[in-house]
């Protein structure tokens, strides 16, 4: 049995995903910036990205960039959001590039860069409708005009972001508007922009369907690399592994209990008033993790179990026909939100492995474990021994 709770990280599957994505986007002249915030800038994962040919790594926390720099990782480090005024000194010290939307911040970066006797590069983020971060297109020329007068600041790129907040999808129309705008800015100011950063994992469908990516030469990928999917519809990208990360927790209680709480009820510990389906007596199994550790709604059990609910440090399962016992390990796949929270949580152990448990050919053609179990649900004589054999019990 391993150390619990934990995330098992298959470095070889991540390496494979990077190789496929680099080849795919490279065919249209687009380089990848690896977004490592979803793995809390884990240095082993970041190292795999660098070894796989990714030249730039991005994170939204300067403390993570500082951590990677101090781990001696060799890459171009990009702060993925506009800096807070309180962190200007560290941004100039540790980030090679920062994404910016506010002229006051850029002025502060310039003043600090003068003090540190170095040039700090910026990517100006422009608003294309998603309404998270970005300068309105009409205001960009005035900002660039001033930035070009500031010492120790270099405009290295223009970027945009879609889907993350408002759910606005990258389309042929809005991406063409972005490219046309960039082209006009280049012409107006004579800027040799290194990074035209056109978006994130949500841009996959646009990329696959467009005949011309326009000015875009950079894409920021995190979820596509780590979970093998695009983020508009959540579909797995062909030839990618979607199971490079596996969340594992240990059963701490397994008992037959009623399916509906009894007694006078009010709000739970999180201020929620819950409703319950009466299923009679069921086997309720508890694993020793909860909302304090991971986004529970982003977990999906590998076996045909059901998450009934959670508290701060318990997840309650309907074990159904799986004979879970105290000490058994239960494995879950993760959404991006679950990956982000679990990797950030200090109470979750991170275990890196470097082995392919299945060949790429097997991965692309064979049904997943979940689909396999679903396909034999009606065959009860086969189901229980198969399920029980697949419980991750390493005692």
Automatic annotation (TrEMBL):
One of its GO terms (cellular component) is cytosol. The keyword Isomerase applies. Residues 9-226 form the Alanine racemase N-terminal domain. InterPro entries: Ala_racemase, Ala_racemase_N, PLP-binding_barrel. It holds the Pfam family Ala_racemase_N. Its cofactor is pyridoxal 5'-phosphate. Gene3D superfamilies: Alanine racemase. This is Putative amino acid racemase.
